[in-house]
Design brief:
The protein has helices spanning 16-28, 55-64, 104-120, 138-147, 170-173, and strands at 5-11, 41-44, 50-53, 69-74, 80-88, 92-98, 125-131, 158-162, 177-180, 185-189. The protein is of the alpha+beta class and 190 residues long. A hairpin with a 4-residue loop joins strand 9 (177-180) and strand 10 (185-189). The chain is globular and about 50 Å long.
């Protein structure tokens, strides 16, 4: 991945109603699946072109886990945040928000919204990764979170695991500085 991004790893596949709860929460922070002028949602196809669909259909497709989907969340009629929604075996849903091109204020808005979402869904949260330089690769992130393997190349700038799950990733903790954030998450730095 070559963009600034934030990835939320969540236990279990999200059904339509669970994804609706996520999108409703994000909408409270100004991130809407529904485009403010066009009144529909948008996915990106395999070549990056917008596909306009009713919001309910997008929620349904995510709930069916038909494959990875690129969903546009709208901050305004002209500013969007791409979100890659994918399911990774054995049982993890990953939402990766691409943050490139946002102003400092917009970046803070999106980050705050996702942090609040994680707190609301802490019992399902596995990890949060933030890569401000866009240097880490998806497969390295997955190996880090799902299998406890440190990437050989660049690592995300910020890594947070749910504190009660730290014992599941002993290899990640080797030589790392672990800071309990006091909110159910622990930050890890190497």
């Amino acid at each position: 991945m070559l963009e600034t991004y934030l990835s939320w790893y969540r236990e279990g596949r999200m059904g339509e109603s669970e994804f609706r709860a996520v999108t409703d929460h994000l909408a409270k922070f100004g991130l809407s699946v529904k485009h403010p002028r066009q009144g529909c949602g948008m996915l990106l196809d395999v070549v990056g072109e917008q596909v306009k669909l009713p919001v309910g259909r997008i929620l349904e497709l995510v709930g069916l886990s038909v494959g990875p989907l690129w969903v546009q969340f709208w901050l305004s009629a002209d500013t969007d945040v791409l979100c890659n929604v994918r399911y990774v075996a054995p049982d993890t849903q990953v939402l990766t928000f691409v943050l490139g091109g946002l102003t400092e204020k917009e970046l803070e808005q999106v980050t705050d919204a996702v942090q609040q979402l994680i707190q609301r869904e802490l019992d399902r949260t596995v990890a949060l990764l933030v890569d401000l330089g866009g240097e880490a690769a998806d497969e390295d992130d997955d190996a880090l979170v799902l299998y406890g393997r440190l990437p050989m190349g660049p690592r995300p700038d910020h890594v947070q695991f749910r504190t009660d799950r730290l014992s599941a990733v002993p290899a990640v903790l080797a030589g790392a500085e672990v800071t309990d954030l006091g909110n159910g998450l622990s930050a890890i730095r190497w």
